Amino acid sequence: PRRHLEGQTALVTGASSGIGRAVAVCLGQAGANVAVNYSSKEDAALEVVKEIESSGSHAFAVKADVSKEEDVLSMFDAVRAEFGTLDILVNNAGLQVDSPFIDMTLAQWQKVIDVNLTGQFLCAREAVREFKKRGVRPEISCAAGKIICMSSVHEVIPWAGHVNYASSKGGVMLMMKSIAQEVAPWRIRVNSIAPGAIRTPINTAAWDTPEHYAALMKLVPYKRIGEPVDIGRAAVWLASDDSDYVHGITLFVDGGMTLYPGFETGG
Ligand code: NAD
Asked: Is the CB of 206 under 6 A from ligand 1?
């Protein structure tokens, strides 16, 4: 891969597995130094660090629960201590706590909002503070900083049985756009990626048997499941100057899942 992120530093939240892992590795392959955030699986995070270092970039693991303000503040201190500053934030950490709406507890609602929405708010705010204070370094990048929010096709597709999750991602959409509007004058770019069905631990039940996979393909016009690297490549593009005039968008990386696949036969 081109090392066009050389000299830049990235923080990827929830980077010890799945999409976050692939994003961290792809950013490292593109030349960025990467802070690998994890919440509990230190071993897995250290493996990601090793993989990034084998591509010739620097990396380190940093523990933080993104829903806790004090954890987020100390994570940003750790990133500054290790790398001096930050250029790229990927707000990836997220989870599902599924329940029929009628039985959903306040704790189940709150947990998902806390991690998926408030966690992205806290990290984005700290990143903007750092980007604005430091400003543009033209030899490094056209922008003073880039934020990529991991949303979902469920920022637009309603999802029965997952009201908390869909609400969090709908919230991410307007949070991202509102931040983008507010910080653009400081040359900070803010965008989202909305993955469709990607093969990760969060949705094992959707692809782990041939029957489940066939059912999933009814929702995917392109007829293959997404792989984490599909998202990693999109993240590298959004983080790089190749997308310098792209601001406040959601990039859907979903094999056409948002194209109303129920209509694909025209019948
Ligand atoms: P995953 O479960 O493998 O990864 C989620 C990561 O977030 C894990 O490493 C987990 O430890 C971390 N995390 C959870 N709570 C955290 C917290 N409080 N603080 C820090 N880290 C925390 O699943 P994934 O599919 O890789 O999900 C990554 C992101 O992609 C999520 O935001 C998810 O909503 C989104 N997404 C995934 C899919 C998909 O099909 N896999 C589709 C759309 C969106």
From this structure: no
Which listed CATH number (3.30.750.24, 3.40.50.720, 3.50.50.60, 3.40.50.1970) goes with 9-255?
3.40.50.720
ipTM of the complex: 0.99
> What are the φ and ψ backbone dihedral angles of 32, each rounded to 5 degrees?
-75, 150
Q: Is the dihedral of CA 223, 227, 231, 232 positive or negative?
A: negative
Residue carrying structure tokens 């709406």? 101
Q: Which of 17, 159, 250 has the most ligand 1 atoms within 8 A of CB, as the residue to mutate?
A: 17
Given the DSSP bridges, would you call strands 145-150 and 250-253 parallel, antiparallel or unpaired? unpaired
pLDDT digits (tens, 9 = 90+) for 16-70: 999 999 999 999 999 999 999 999 999 999 999 999 999 999 999 999 999 999 9
Give the list of residues 6+ apart from residue 89 with CB closer than 8 angstroms, or none. 10, 11, 13, 123, 124, 127, 145, 146, 147, 148
User: Which residue has 């989870």 as its token pair?
Assistant: 95
For the chain, the domains span: 9-255
